[in-house]
Task: structure prediction
Amino acid sequence: MPVPLLDLRAQHAAIRDEVARAMMRVVDAQSFILGAPVEELEHQVAELSKTKYAIGCASGTDALLLALRALDIGRGDEVITTPFTFFATAGTIHNVGATPVFVDIEPQAFNIAPEAIAAAITPRTKAVIPVDLFGQMAALEKVTAAAPGIPVIEDAAQSIGARRQIGGTWRMAGEAATMGTLSFFPSKNLGGYGDGGMIVTQDQALATRLRRLRVHGGTKQYFHDEVGYNSRLDALQAAVLSAKLPHLAKWSEKRRENAKYYNEALAGIDGVCTPCVDPKNESIFNQYTIRAQRRDELQAYLKSKEIGTSIYYPLPLHLQPCFAYLGYREGACPQSERASKEVLSLPIYPELTRGQLDEVVDAIRAFYE
Ligand SMILES: Cc1ncc(COP(=O)(O)O)c(C=O)c1O
Result:
């Protein structure tokens, strides 16, 4: 039985009518740009994230770009981030004219190592972007402590609804940062039927600025206080996402159950190291990522058994050709480099059957035996 890495059709089959009704309401109203569906989703996501404001935009990439612009970050500024992340985290820093400064990860959760941040701070540091990788929040309180007074943009593209205990209280992804950025790319736990993104924040002034920046920098049509972007969230996407949102907690719980099943079943296999979740975190398992000996051979073997896997990420950002101008060499971020050679993400989506999970486990066991 084939086991794809992700099967969005299985999810869609279960919610088709609800989503179709929500989409048709937008189509019948013939009102496609911002408006009530986007405002409704913004309220719902702010409530989920326990933030005062949420601002929809065109993608998770644009959410980062708008957040950087809202902090007036540009040429001559430095932004500290992790090299073990999706490209957008650093690409947007470059695209506002600033310099990405890469700090290595800690090997357990694959998130930025807070203790390495202090050494990277200079008078030009204008923000830190920790990434909540694979569904698990970065140690936000430690990041904040390592960079006192420096704004934190939490890239929570992979982690909507994840939580971390900070000072004895559960804090949601995006809640405790200066701004949190979300992606509704279809493969995320809350995925749209196309691109979409959002920024969450507790700061009213930033929220106002972000709303302006997403519509060409003006609050009144055809009058522009600054140069912004066309980065609106489609009303159709917002309607789809609002229809899907009530299912999110259940889907993420199912992912956690699948992760637990894998953890137990894979525990005894020499050559596999199952993912570590910090006891202070509740992951939403956007990815279930193991470290594997002979990783590439294992991936090819699983492919021959029609089991989908993926490598997130095969080349850390500090070694990408486009960032050669920054002057990083191999060895600069050893944990990220090691992770890129060892990680393998397995199918974890909520609709997986027990039979499919067993298929994956049996194939991995057969490979190492
Ligand atoms: C960590 C991270 N940051 C940013 C993004 C960008 O989001 P989008 O694809 O919606 O532009 C993604 C999406 O894949 C991501 O995983």
